[in-house]
Fold this sequence. Notes:
There is one protein chain. The chain has 209 residues and is of the alpha+beta class. It is 58% helix and 21% strand. The chain has 6 helices and 5 strands. It has a 5-stranded antiparallel β-sheet, sandwiched between helices. A hairpin with a 2-residue loop joins strand 3 (146-153) and strand 4 (156-169). The relative contact order is 0.07.
Amino acid sequence: LIRYYGSLKNVPEEQKVLFEQIDKTYTENDQEYNLIERALDISSKELTEANTLLREEKKEIEERIRIRTKELSQEKSKLNRIAQNMNTGAILFDKNGQVTFINNKARETIRFDGVDNSLVLEKLFFKFKGFPIKEYLGRCVAGETLKISQAEISSSIFELLFQSLLISNGEDSSSFGHLIWIRDITEEKLLERSKSELVAIASHQLRTP
């Protein structure tokens, strides 16, 4: 302007008004920019604080999950030890009829010492080959609960229970697996027979003159 008019005093009034508006606009823009910059700075601090809180919460949740996972693992290990050392044999199947667990007593009963659970059924059928194990297993998978009260093999007597494991969802229930219990009842049955024989002998003796 100085170069054009020689002096600011020579600038026409209407142009002064125009340049005053331009100057005012830029000044207001600077103020708005400063306000936005401060707002962004505050937002950035809040975001940083929020991220810090989230990280702390995440660490806390992860620690709780780690502790709970450890507790569940210990509970599972404890239950597994109990199941493995029961006096009753247990063979667990999934809903597709695949063996997922066999305890020590069941291994001993069917003489299975391998690690391939797909061979468990073969051993089970062979051990109780005179009994309808395959039929009862199929009916158990279909949802029935069945029992073989006395399966006498050589000098041993066993009781077998076929049972579906159900999970309840309100009024409905669905099977999540199937279980075969194998209980050695040899001593019980021999004791019952001894009692029956004793009663029969005593009764006969009492009737004899």
